[in-house]
């Protein structure tokens, strides 16, 4: 009940593989998991998503509790659903200055998830965007202002709740000031407890008062708060324990001082901040003793088949290396959450045809997309306008350069909207061109020569692998445009 594995395979592909089908069937039948987290490969379309969530619940029906079916559907670029209304990322929502937009986004996301059989969303992100070099939070954060994050986070949380979906605040105690991507690195935030209380903890404190239900931990270390250390299995160096494994941060501060009574779930334990530095069993033992209620395990099917050995090992350590009272308290908190959302009721097979039809009537509707687009327009923020460059002259020839293939659809859709809204009469003077590894700098420059204005779409993190080759290209194209 304290383990949540992952699945990244849709229903049809799962049924085609006798081996994978057996692995999932055996695992769910043999173990009463807290639930499953779905990744994008599992939710490719409405039919597949509904069939998969039903399949998981059906396999689990002999257990006394129904599964939590979770997903990362934050809005913006962290959106796992292959179908649905993506909506703005958090920074975009805050840029509209309307808290009601965050609520409405939560309602739309929540209704679409619930229609698919998904009952737990790992959202909203309430990290403070304090470090411009942060490679993983950035625009997933509402703001660099903690009070603003609290207000918008509360609105989104309430929207999701009112749609019948469980919410998750992440990543406690706040990793917006880290310059590391914890999926690939270990990271430390050297703030004092007082500094956290004046910044990162503000949204958590506020939303705990408003019945926060689930909180996800950060794998960052906080060396001025946690005194415990460990010797890394990667390099043998001694480091400070990360928050996920810190009793000081999870039990002493979050539970005792902040009064949080809900469920604590770890971030994915396969992230290298954990998996590279700790032996597998040791990390889980430390997490449970620190106060984690649900351990999030992102696994390949072959790894799921071996999960039983890990579970057996952990069970054998209860009462010796693992604090039995922690386990009992965790189970009570999980059962209380499931009871609140009707997940202790006996499972009955749904009318799947009706369920799919209902989902199709609720998901990705014209009304939802109109709301989405209106929010997007409200979010657009002009940072500067030197020499009154904007708005561009419609009679000038304008070239939009883009790198990702998917941006072509974005550009075409936007231009059609501009025409429909009578912002431009037609697109005869506006073209787009993909500058990527298939087009040389010389070819792109030659293309640019025929235009008065150059617009470059960019969306790269400072430390992304692709940025090492793309960023200099962008700089060169900008310089060429200025010279000409």
Describe the secondary structure blueprint for this structure.
Blueprint: E1 3-7, H1 11-16, H2 18-30, E2 35-38, H3 46-59, E3 68-71, E4 73-75, E5 78-79, H4 90-95, H5 99-115, E6 120-121, H6 146-162, E7 168-172, H7 193-197, H8 201-208, E8 214-217, E9 229-231, E10 238-240, H9 247-257, E11 263-265, H10 272-275, H11 280-290, E12 295-297, H12 301-305, H13 307-317, H14 324-340, H15 352-362, H16 366-379, E13 398-402, H17 407-420, E14 430-434, H18 441-448, E15 453-456, H19 467-483
Parallel strand pairs: 1-2, 1-12, 2-3, 3-6, 7-8, 8-11, 13-14, 13-15
Antiparallel strand pairs: 4-5, 9-10
Helix pairs in contact: 3-15, 5-6, 6-8, 18-19
Order of strands across the widest beta sheet? 6-3-2-1-12
Approximate helicity band:
40-55%
Strand content: 5-15%
The CA-CA distance between the termini, in Å, is 64 Å
Summed over residues and divided by their number, the pLDDT gives a mean of 93
Structural class: alpha/beta
**Apparent shape:** globular
User: What is the number of E strands?
Assistant: 15
Count of helix runs:
19
Can you characterise this structure?
The protein has about 475 residues and is α/β, with parallel strands linked by helices. It is about 45% helix and about 10% strand. It has 19 helices and 15 strands. It has helices at about 10-15, 20-30, 45-60, 90-95, 100-115, 145-160, 195, 200-210, 245-255, 270-275, 280-290, 300-305, 305-315, 325-340, 350-360, 365-380, 405-420, 440-450, 465-484; strands at about 5, 35-40, 70, 75, 80, 120, 170, 215, 230, 240, 265, 295, 400, 430-435, 455. Strands 6-3-2-1-12 form a 5-stranded parallel beta sheet. α3 links the parallel β2 (about 35-40) and β3. Mean pLDDT is about 95; it is low at about 460-465.
């Amino acid at each position: 009940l304290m383990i949540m594995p992952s699945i990244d395979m849709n229903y049809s592909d799962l049924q085609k593989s006798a081996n994978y089908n057996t692995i999932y069937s055996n695992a769910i039948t043999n173990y009463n998991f807290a639930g499953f987290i779905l990744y994008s490969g599992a939710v490719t379309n409405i039919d597949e998503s509904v069939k998969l969530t039903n399949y998981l619940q059906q396999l689990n029906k002999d257990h006394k509790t129904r599964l939590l079916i979770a997903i990362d559907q934050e809005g913006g670029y962290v959106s796992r659903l292959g179908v649905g209304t993506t909506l703005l990322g958090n920074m975009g929502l805050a840029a509209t200055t309307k808290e009601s937009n965050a609520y409405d986004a939560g309602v739309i996301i929540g209704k679409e998830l619930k229609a698919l059989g998904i009952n737990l969303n790992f959202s909203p992100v309430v990290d403070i965007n304090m470090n411009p070099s942060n490679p993983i939070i950035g625009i997933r954060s509402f703001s660099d202002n903690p009070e603003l994050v609290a207000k918008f986070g509360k609105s989104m949380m309430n929207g999701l709740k009112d749609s019948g979906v469980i919410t998750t605040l992440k990543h406690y105690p706040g990793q917006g000031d880290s310059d590391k991507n914890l999926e690939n690195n270990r990271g430390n935030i050297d703030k004092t407890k007082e500094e956290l209380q004046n910044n990162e903890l503000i949204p958590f404190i506020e939303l705990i008062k408003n019945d926060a239900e689930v909180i996800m931990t950060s794998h960052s270390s906080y060396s001025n708060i946690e005194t415990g250390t460990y010797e890394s299995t990667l390099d043998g160096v001694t480091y400070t324990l990360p928050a996920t494994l810190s009793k000081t941060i999870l039990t002493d501060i979050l539970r005792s001082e902040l009064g949080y009574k809900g469920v604590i779930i770890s971030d994915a334990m396969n992230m290298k901040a954990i998996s590279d530095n700790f032996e597998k069993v040791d990390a889980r033992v430390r997490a449970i003793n620190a106060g984690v209620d649900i351990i999030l395990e992102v696994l390949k099917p072959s790894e799921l088949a071996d999960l039983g050995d890990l579970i057996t090992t952990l069970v054998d350590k209860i009462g010796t290396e693992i604090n039995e009272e922690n386990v009992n308290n965790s189970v009570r908190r999980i059962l209380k959450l499931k009871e609140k959302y009707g997940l202790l009721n006996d499972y009955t097979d749904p009318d799947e045809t009706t369920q799919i039809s209902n989902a199709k009537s609720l998901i990705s509707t014209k009304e939802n997309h109109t709301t989405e687009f209106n929010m997007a327009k409200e979010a657009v923020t002009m940072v500067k306008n030197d020499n009154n460059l904007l708005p561009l002259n419609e009679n000038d020839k304008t070239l939009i350069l883009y790198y990702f293939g998917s941006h072509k659809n974005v550009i075409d859709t936007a231009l059609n909207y501009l025409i429909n809204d009578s912002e431009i009469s037609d697109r005869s003077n506006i073209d787009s061109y993909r500058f990527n590894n298939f087009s040389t700098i010389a070819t792109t420059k030659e293309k640019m020569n025929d235009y008065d204005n150059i617009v470059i779409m960019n969306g790269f993190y400072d430390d992304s692998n692709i940025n090492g080759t793309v960023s200099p290209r962008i700089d060169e194209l900008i310089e060429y445009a200025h010279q000409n």
